[in-house]
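Q: Sequence in, structure out?
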Amino acid sequence: MPKKILNGIVVSDKPNKTITVLVERKYQHPVLKKVMKARKKYNAHDEHNKFKIGDKVSIRESRPYSKNKKFEAIGDLK
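A: Exactly. Output:
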């Protein structure tokens, strides 16, 4: 099964080797048929601390690095 890849914006880079990424997705409500926005924050591993707040990044599902960190940063989005 392929690994999940998500795109989002870095909202925190305070912990060492960790970034928090806000991912926004749109979906249609099953009953109301209205387009809704859902936001979720993911902790991602950033080995070299190269991403800063406001950067657009891609994160990929990976092995668990800790209790809450199950993604790794794979690159910048322009």
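The longest strand covers residues 18-28.
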